[in-house]
Amino acid sequence: MGNSSSLEQLDPLHRIASSTPISQTDAELWQQLFSLQLPSSSAEELAAASYSFCAEMVRNNPSSGNFQSLIRRAIDLLHLASKPKATGDPVRQACDCIFFVRLFLKHMIETLPSSELVGHLTVPDGAAGSGPSALCEPLVEALLALLVQCELNAETYWLHMECTAALLVGMSTQLYADLTVPTAQPFLLAVLSSGGTNAELLVQRLLTHVIERPAAPTPPRGILRAIGGAIGTVLLLPYYTVRSVARNVYYIFASADADAGAGPLSLADRSLHVLLLLTQHLPPALFVEGALPSNAFLDALRALGDEQPFDKGTDDHDDPDDPEGGKLRARRVPFKELHDALATALPEPGAALLLYLLLHGNTDFLEYALSRTDPEALLTPLLRLLHESRSLPPNQLYMVLIILLLLSQDAGLMAATQTTMVSSVPWYTERVLGPISVGSLLVLLLVRTVQSNLAKGETHDAYVNTNCLAALANVAPTLRKMHPAAARGMLALVDVFIRKYSRHARRAGRSDAAVAADSAELSATPGGASADSDAEGLQLAADCLRIALEVINLTLSAGPALNEHLVYALLERPGLVEPLRGHEQFSDLLENLDLVLDFFGATLNGPAPGAEGGDPTAAPSTHTVATVLGHIRDVGREWRGERMRAFPDLKFTYEQEAHPEEFFTPYLWNVVYDASGIGWSSERLVLFPTAGDYGGASGGSQVTLPPLTEVDVVDEGACGPVGHGLGTSGASR
Questions:
Q1: Nearest to 294 by CA among 303, 285, 281
Q2: What pLDDT is stored for residue 308 in this prediction?
Q3: Does residue 610 fall inside a structural domain?
Q4: What is the pLDDT of residue 158?
Q5: SS (H, E, C) 44-63
Q6: Which helix (H) or strand (E) holds 548?
Q7: How many structural domains does the chain have?
Q8: Cα 218 off chain centre by
Q9: Which of 27, 49, 361, 731 would bridge 302 by S-S if both were Cys, CB 3.0 to 4.6 A apart?
Q10: Residue 620 burial class via C-beta count within 10 angstroms: exposed 0-12, middle 13-18, buried 19 and up
């Protein structure tokens, strides 16, 4: 095992990579190539052999044209395999041929400048066709046609896997291109030019795979068997990578025969990655003269409709473009199943990206998602991800926050979250929450995320704070019966912003009285760049603090008694906003808080229930949670809403940036790079720094988040005594 003689079995690969041209009619060679049995060699030997074949192909192909011959053979086989009910040799040989095409193509993309790559994809002189796209376009058309037309079953599963992998490899020229410089993108242009009906049907088919997650069958034999196991993965890994992990991968080979069907990825995963690349926002500068082509695949995703039910008892599904009997109706998929599949898969970054594309671009899907009566189905997995914000890559955290902001824009959905309860939240490890509404859980996790972000000090991400506060402002007018942990968390957040604001004011070198003036004046004071920086930090802290105070005002404006735990938390911390007294920019917001404190706290300093009201020697009252909440409910019946100063509802909406490709293209490719199972080389990578560093959190310091509630916890049932009472402090200013 692992000796050089075993590698002699790969002689057909030597022949096709040699300088001797091969003929399309050389049936014996093609049969040998597609009947290869990979040797039981070590990982390093196999990787070295594949690298050697690829290097030999690059060196000899300009004279032999054998890579072009291989592509032509692949196109012919794909056409045969795309025919209705194709089975047997055409399917198996097409799968093997596409595997070899992407093996050589991947090496060329990784090692050659774009100008040389185009030469290997050009039909040689004297052959039919001309121009650099002469082979890309028919190959791409054949790949897309097969994915649309070829019925998915146990025999064709691996052919679908290979076709999706080939599309990923072909479009990976973006990995090695500067977004700001025109670069040859032959496969990407060929994909975009295919368009038409195929775009709609392909988007539908790929989404169907994402929804149904078809199980992988056991590959039958030869190269096809290797594709489904560890060997196929190793052949596609960069050689230097395999050398570093050869010992580990060798043991994978030992069990590959016993479990050949256990591939690293499913067709659903590959379909998701292809769909994301097909529907991406393309960088205009990549294309010559900025001629950005239209994207029929993105248009198809945006126009997708909900599948209408049909009578399975009828037999009228004979459309040749729909070989699966009505399962693939043009431009329609079952939104319920799609919604649930994405909610389940949200821990995978690709699923969140697709969910964003649908919510932001497809009005029908957005309407469906907002109209569901189970908001917890989507929000709970999103909030669970948010709970892990400290370990998420920054870009994945951004996607979660953008999706939450999109959902928070709908008042109906946010109102529904207030009455939708979850019995427990086992993944929330800071404390036992007990029954909690989805709306309160949303507030709690948004607050926690801001606190975690601010705990990073000067390195905190302002984008995270902005999006969290925007979502909080959107949900605030609908908040009802807020959970005590959420109420206290909101006040804890205000406290954090007050301290941050005060710290910036002190750093600006101004007295408390001077800070009461408009903070914008600070930028005009002497002090150079430091003064400007302090002014910017002070203004940002003031803006965040004001939004947090407005959120509390909006929550109370519907009636303080509707959020008794928020009133309780305010009464418990009457001095919270004292540092802001005399600050004009906050006075209007403090006015309403004072009204609430005065109204509900006025009688709390009186005798405790059962005490003699007129006896000046009576002991000061002590209150339990139950008595205070009962007091809030009783007094709340006399509350008049006109007492509070009215503020317009804060309404934040998500607007995609003018150049979304600057964020989405690198992030999308980073997701595919890490999760596709295709080991691209990072040596010439341009799109993002390195596979391990881009967007990752592993290199950063871990922040220990302090508990949201640093005081004793009020009970969730709003009854019974607790160790910490309000005492006799009342609500004095």
A1: 281
A2: 59
A3: no
A4: 92
A5: HHHHHHHHHHHHHHHHHHHH
A6: helix 528-557
A7: 2
A8: 31
A9: 361
A10: exposed
End-to-end CA distance of the chain: 84
Residues 6+ apart with CB under 8 A from 594: 733
Token pair recorded at residue 499: 């301290």
Separation between Cα atoms, residue 391 and residue 266, nearest integer Å? 26
Burial of 278 (0-12, 13-18, 19+ CB in 10 A): buried
DSSP code of residue 291: -
Short-list 407, 301, 306, CA closest to 362: 301
Q: Are residues 572 and 451 in the same domain?
A: yes
Which tokens belong to 360?
A: 């932001």
Main-chain dihedrals φ then ψ at residue 333, nearest 5 degrees: -140, 160
Q: Do 380 and 327 share a structural domain?
A: no
Q: In which residue ranges of the chain is pLDDT below 50?
A: 1-2, 42-43, 127-133, 230-231, 234, 239-263, 309-322, 324-329, 511-513, 515-516, 518-530, 607-620, 691-733
Q: Are residues 280 and 405 in the same domain?
A: no
Give the other-Cβ count within 10 Å of 63's Cβ.
11
> Are 450 and 599 within one domain?
yes
Residue 354 has what pLDDT?
A: 98
CA separation for the pair 373, 381 (Å, rounded): 16
Residue whose structure tokens are 């479990």? 259
List all residues 6 or more positions away from 100 whose beta carbon is below 8 Å from its beta carbon. Answer: 13, 16, 33, 70, 223
Which one, of 136, 102, 276, lies nearest residue 679 by Cα? Answer: 102
Tokens of 189: 């242009």
**Residue 349 belongs to some domain of the structure:** no
Full residue range of the structural domain in which residue 262 is found: 4-309+322-333
Question: Within 10 Å of residue 31's Cβ, how many Cβ atoms?
Answer: 12
**pLDDT recorded at residue 264:** 55
Residues 248 and 380 in one domain: no
Under 8 Å CB-to-CB from 24, ≥6 apart: which residues?
69, 72, 73
Cβ atoms of 368 and 335 within 8 Å: the answer is: yes
- Residue 226 token pair: 């290797």
Same domain, 63 and 174: yes
Are 285 and 181 spatial neighbours (Cβ–Cβ below 8 Å)? Answer: yes
Given a contact cutoff of 8 angstroms between Cβ atoms, the answer to whether 724 and 570 are in contact is no
Q: How far is CA 59 from the centre of its chain?
A: 41
Assess whether 381 and 277 both reside in one domain.
Answer: no
User: Is 320 strand, coil or helix?
Assistant: coil
Asked whether residue 141 is assigned to any structural domain, the reply reads yes
Instruction: Return the pLDDT at 48.
Output: 62
> Two tokens at 623?
């209150």
Give me the torsion for CA of 183, 69, 271, 204, rounded to 10°: 100
Write out pLDDT tens, residues 14-68: 899 999 999 888 888 888 888 776 655 544 555 566 788 899 999 999 999 999 9
Same domain, 61 and 164: yes
pLDDT at 6: 53
Residue 46 lies in a domain: yes
